[in-house]
Structure formats: C-alpha cells, structure tokens
Fold this sequence. Notes:
Layout: H1 3-7, E1 10-13, H2 21-34, E2 38-41, H3 46-53, E3 59-63, H4 72-84, E4 89-93, H5 96-101, H6 104-117, E5 122-126, H7 134-147, E6 151-153, H8 165-174, E7 180-184, H9 190-198, E8 203-206, H10 208-218
Parallel strand pairs: 1-2, 1-8, 2-3, 3-4, 4-5, 5-6, 6-7, 7-8
Helix pairs in contact: 4-6, 6-7, 7-8
Amino acid sequence: MDRKDILKTVDHxxxxxxxxxxxxxxxxxxxxxxxxxxxxxxxxxxxxxxxYVEGRLPICTVIGFPNGYSxxxxxxxxxxxxxxxxxxxxxMVVNIGWVKDGKYQEIEDEIRQIHEACGGKxxxxxIETCLLTEEEKIRxxxxxxxxxxxxxxxxxxxxxxxxxxxxxxxxxxxxGKEVKVKAAGGIASLEDAEKFIALGADRLGTSRIVxxxxxxDDGTGY
Length: 222
C-alpha cells in the first residue's frame, strides 16, 4: 500500500498529560507536511492549534477522556466548547460503567446529544474494546449505529490494551454500512497499519506511523 494512502487515514495523535505546545506544534507541522487525516490533541490546545494551522489540517480533540464517566451534560459542554474553538472532529469516550450495567439506551441518548452538539462535525465514539466482552462490543456497534455517529473507535490508548485485528474485524461486521471504524492504540508499524486498513479500519489513531515515515525520509531507517 502506498504510504500516502496510509497517511490519509492517520489521526496524528498526541494526548499525553505532559504534552507541551512545542510538542503539539510539531504534531501539527508533521500533519500538514504528510497530509494526515487530522491532528488529535488535548482540548486545551484546540483554539491555539486551529489558529496555527489556518485550515491546512483538521483539528480533532477528545471528550470525556480517557475514562468516559463524566456526566452527559459535561460531555456536551466540552463538545460545544471544542467546536467553538475550532475542532473539526470529536472523539468521545462512552461510559464503560453504563455498558457493564446494560444501559444501552442511556448510552445511545448521550451519543445523540453529543452528536447534535457537534453541529455537523465528525463524531467518533470510543468504546474501549479491551474492557468489554464480545457481546458488549457487538451491542456497542449496534448502539453507535443507531445513535448516528460517523465513527466507532476501539480505544483511548490509556487503558489495558489498544486496537486488535480481531476487534476491527468484529466491529466492521456489526456496525452499519454508514459507520466507519477507527483503530487506535498500539499501532506500531506500517505492516500493522496496512492490515488494520485491509480489515476495514477507515482511520488509525497513532503518531508512530508518521515517525516511521519521517525516519525513512531522513535516511535513518526503520
């Protein structure tokens, strides 16, 4: 697969607690240079980032991150604030406790409210697959589809594991045709990226792929 095709799927991501503006600016510069799908950064930097990129790169941020157990009202506020500050894409974390409680209608209602708050911008719903049973993953595929979100996403990258090939395959099988799949967390090689895409992932949440390609461009190898 051509590396440009891979890069077009990448949400170039930096969400560590210690992320500085200098580091985030580097992510933005790389995203512009390599034409990634977006840059996914902490909400506190969205306004500054949007002003910096001047429309050359979509800015993505996270809501209810990484645990997902904020109230719906808080998540809706976070979403509206992020959109007002210039975010083009929102990655929200569902309430995992609600999944375990079987509160799928409440989860669907929350996703709908956040999707409305996006005002037409892209919403990706993180279900944290490493914490769910196969039955819960399937139910969440159905719930995200019913709620009308644009994407379902595997992981925050802050829990016990990231994306797996099996999870992407399962999600692609059980979400609606109009729902796209984002694999995130632990994608560490071009070979893995290609396989995730082949299995049906439309987006990849990672910074590693860009780093690998930069190393190749610099002649330092990979």
